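User: My collaborator sent over this chain with a note saying "see what the structure looks like." That's all I know about it. Can you take a look?
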Amino acid sequence: MAPERGQQPPETSETQSPSAATSSDAGRADGKDTAGTGPRVIRIPSPSRLFTRGYCRRERSSQDVVTPIKASNPRCFLDVDVSGEPIGRLVVELRADVVPKTAENFRTLCAGTLGYGYQGCPFHRIVPNFICQSGCFETPTGKTGGCSIYEGRPFEGENFALLHLEPGLLSMANAGPNKNGSQFFITMVKAPYLDKRHVVFGRVLTGMQVLKTLSDLGTVSGTPLRPVSIRACGVL
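Assistant: Without extra context I'll predict from the sequence alone. Here is the result:
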């Protein structure tokens, strides 16, 4: 089960609508006028417009740049596509100083040294102002928990020392307690109700504007309005 807004035990496997969605949110998701006056048109930004609003704006501003917590922690990058067009890069710090096993799982999947990994993987679930979820390279819809680097098997929740205190945190989606694979999500808001359920293992150093751009493509159900994927990834 995927992370649920305002509820506890978010897990991976099946995408579900957040139970905290308001009636007005539901109206926007299904294309109905929230005032009940008739249908409304949902305007979907073109990839080129998203590129201008997201990547170029990020390049012009350094306000979203965060200093690494520890210089020895590994850093990775994720280049993001919308409908095949690049919109920008996320640079993340992995908290190997707190959760080394979880950090190494993500780092290796970014590097792709085992013959599989995050390159080409879709962001199969985007809920506006909540999360962007990816990491399932087995099925494009995220129906499985993914595949870890540890003999392909699920691994334990290392610890819950890091909390979901702010936007831009990387955390493991899971198929239940101690069933972590490769799926992960990035928070767009503070989400304390996910604490003690999901292992936080990193944070975005640069590229918060890219996340804001992705939020524009999210829906209450989580299905993105346009295909979003990891064009390229690696270790810095």
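A starting point for your reply to your collaborator: The two ends are 32 Å apart (CA to CA).
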